[in-house]
Design goal:
Length: about 170
Amino acid sequence: MRVAIITVSDRCSEGTAIDKSGPKLVELINASEKVKHATVTGTTVIPDEREKISHAIRELCGSNASDVVITTGGTGWAVRDVTPEATNDVIERRCGGLETALHLRSLQATPFAALSRLTAGIRGQTLIVNFPGSTKAVQECWEVLEPLLNHGIGLLCGADQTTVHEKIQGQ
């Protein structure tokens, strides 16, 4: 499974702050025992600019470059937080259940999670998921996404999932 990470931050892209959430995601993916054969294919840091974000996501989805694109940052209420809008410009299908699960997990940790506008969706055979920008929120959101990835990406790629569905349903 090929995973690309985009950190969205004006300050980190300018070099006035250090990206901590992108490296945290790399650490979590590399340490995962649940995601089969996960490889981080690239990380990038870009400013909070809608066109640059959507362009970066499109590039990572093109030619089956990535199975999963995770963004971190730019999901709040600040004027420059436009990651959800940029993601919605790119996705073809929303993943509302995943969005709800991510929000619910974060709300268990802090009421401030209600201020997150993260989104998730599919473009072609690529899953795109927005995470908030803090390392704590990245950890919490990864706990939700990690156990879903093998099955979800299998479905996107058209793999035969009959036995997985039977196991889930207790058959």
